Amino acid sequence: xxxxxxxxxxxxxxxxxxxxxxxxxxxxxxxxxxxxxxxxxxxxxxxxxxxxxxxxxxxxxxxxxxxxxxxxxxxxxxxxxxxxxxxxxxxxxxxxxxxxxxxxxxxxxxxxxxxxxxxxxxxxxxxxxxxxxxxxxxxxxxxxxxxxxxxxxxxxxxxxxxxxxxxxxxxxxxxxxxxxxxxxxxxxxxxxxxxxxxxxxxxxxxxxxxxxxxxxxxxxxxxxxxxxxxxxxxxxxxxxxxxxxxxxxxxxxxxxxxxxxxxxxxxxxxxxxxxxxxxxxxxxxxxxxxxxxxxxxxxxxxxxxxxxxxxxxxxxxxxxxxxxxxxxxxxxx
Length: 333
What we know:
The chain is α/β, with parallel strands linked by helices. The chain has helices spanning 34-47, 62-70, 100-114, 133-145, 159-168, 189-196, 235-244, 246-255, 259-274, 287-295, 303-312, 325-328, and strands at residues 5-7, 14-16, 20-21, 51-53, 79-84, 86-89, 92-96, 119-124, 149-155, 171-177, 199-203. The chain has one domain: Alpha-Beta Barrel (TIM Barrel), CATH 3.20.20.100. Helices cover 38% and strands 15% of the residues. Helix 1 (34-47) runs parallel beside helix 10 (287-295), helix 4 (133-145) crosses helix 5 and helix 8 (246-255) packs antiparallel against helix 11. The longest helix is centred in the last third of the chain and has 16 residues, at 259-274. The N and C termini lie far apart (38 Å).
């Protein structure tokens, strides 16, 4: 199948109905394999999965450079989203930095690594408490006027900062963690996005792999794998979360599909229910999983299935914070 395109927000951005998170091609989920990653990117283009998500901090820097090499001669076929907002020293992210002059420096460097003359969607990766959001939005607006950026986005921003940014330069998309496994956006953020005409780009839509059914306890993952330190993969949290996720596996079994496909189908249906453009970006570096993710767009869950999933994975039934304490401190809520 070839994916349809969806509007993402009301500013004119159009992207594939499901995107591809590229972070894992360079870090966090096992060793990198460039040949496999490039093949996956090329297969994504063939399938119409052309909304590609990266960031300067992935690697750092190496993920953008990988895309630049892989997309040689194919740049016009894809929509590239990347992000600024961290201070990087000695190859490590050491804090936030969204000063306008830093934003401009990051964009120039990203353009070189991505081998392109424009970024389609530029996100602030995390809100910087030291820099007024108006200054951030103004700086990105200048880059839009210069043709170096097409659309502006925010990642893990809270309601107040979304409003402040949008008042200065229109925000096309907010990227945040949202899935059956993580519902924190439903009370306030998603209604606000609908009100302002902003699209939602859920990252980790498969619960960092938990909703695929192919999971192990934290200690069973190798050193360097993100899940080794994920609170939801640890101890009693793991046991409770496996039990909650059983409903995803049950519905998948009845349907004859993969659990991860059910989780993505739930997300796509939620967009219709909320009246918000929702485009998930499941991450993978393998063609097999890419093809499974893309095929999820054809699955239409009925009202009873949606209700059963909502109930089984209600917020009170998922145990453990979604990040470590340090990670949660960087989420603007």
